[in-house]
Prior knowledge:
This protein is an alpha/beta fold. It has one domain (about 15-295): Dihydropteroate synthase-like (TIM Barrel), CATH 3.20.20.20. About 35% of the residues lie in helices and about 15% in strands. It has 9 helices and 10 strands. It has helices spanning about 95-110, 120-135, 150-160, 170-185, 205-220, 235-240, 240-245, 255-275, 285-300; strands at about 15-20, 35, 55-60, 80, 115, 140-145, 165, 190-195, 230, 275-280. The chain has an 8-stranded parallel beta sheet with strand order 8-7-6-5-4-3-10-9. α2 runs parallel beside α3 (about 150-160).
Amino acid sequence: MPIEIPKDRWPGAVKAVTLGATAQDGGTRTSTVTVGGERTLPFLHFEEAPPHRPAIALEITPVRPDDWSVCGSVGADLIVVSLRLQDAAGDPVSPDLAVRSVTTVLESTGLPLIVLGPGQAEVDNELLVAVADAAKGERLALGLCEHGNYRTIVAAAMANDHLVVSRTPMDVNLAKQLIILITDMGLPLERILMDPTTAALGYGIEYGYSVMERLRIAALQGDVMTQLPLFVNPGHEAWKTKEAKVGQGVPDAWGDWGERAVSWETVTAVALIEAGADVVVLRHPESLTRVKAAVDELMTVE
């Protein structure tokens, strides 16, 4: 006698969000990326096939960093340009340099871009407004919008047809509150990615995982202010851990440093994808290859 697998039917769904604009939409991208749109929990193919693959972004910076390895964009769906506080000479990054950096990337790739400020409110506002104006119509995602610093970034996105990334500490209610504030300014939900913040493997990932699950369940239950695609940055989190940075003076059982570091980023990213992440940001090309292979398996119906 066949066994009938029980299926959930949810009243809500995650919004579909498209990054990038092709020539017919007023931009210069050769492709766009759409994420979100889920009507069930991650990868439950027997309930409903995922409408879009999780997107993998690779992070680059205009200035060569000294705390992580710079890598090419082989196989990435998106490019994340992380602006720094200082240029190669140690001088403060100017709006002109930020614009030149983003323009150079736009001219070098047809992929959609996410542009993140260095994380200081006044500097973020100054740099991101200039970038938003210069890249009008490209449908960049600008970030990070936080409770104390979202108005200027949202206004720049609204004026130039861009998206924003909202970020809050690991808390469902705080995440909702910021989305309410952003939409109150008039930006549609279809132009917002939600960053609930996460942690790396072994450094609190289980808490971030549970918050992402709760956000996804709330979205499916019909809570409109949680119905946003989830954006997380496991590369940033994983590469600052001791396991990824320390190659000497550790137990032999920890194994090869390079392999360990890539594995730390890969496992962190895959776990977050299984929690519901729609966009993950990575730093190492080998991690990207491995995460793409994992996503291929998750998207396959057996």
